[in-house]
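In the design runs reported in the main text, the only information available to the sequence generator was the tokenized backbone. The following block is the verbatim input for one such run; it is reproduced so that readers can re-run the procedure and compare outputs position by position.
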């Protein structure tokens, strides 16, 4: 399972540009705690977790090229495609 991870700086960029920013955690720390809990839960269930660190500018450009809003669905698709490219 590939999970999108963000540095604190990239998280701030994401919050500024995301179409669904209202659905994101209010702080980087809250988001990081949530994603880390999810990763731990997945690993406990025998899933291999791959952390993909997102460059938000690349994500913005990709969304524009695809004609997609920068939302959860687009972020998931972007990470799945990029992580797959990096494993080839």
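Verbatim output:
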């Amino acid at each position: 399972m590939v999970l999108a991870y963000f540095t604190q700086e990239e998280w701030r960029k994401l919050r500024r540009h995301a179409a669904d920013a209202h659905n994101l955690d209010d702080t980087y720390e809250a988001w990081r705690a949530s994603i880390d809990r999810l990763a731990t839960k997945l690993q406990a269930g025998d899933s291999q977790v791959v952390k993909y660190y997102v460059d938000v500018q690349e994500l913005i450009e990709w969304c524009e090229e695809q004609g997609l809003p920068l939302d959860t669905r687009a972020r998931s698709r972007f990470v799945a495609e990029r992580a797959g490219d990096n494993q080839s």
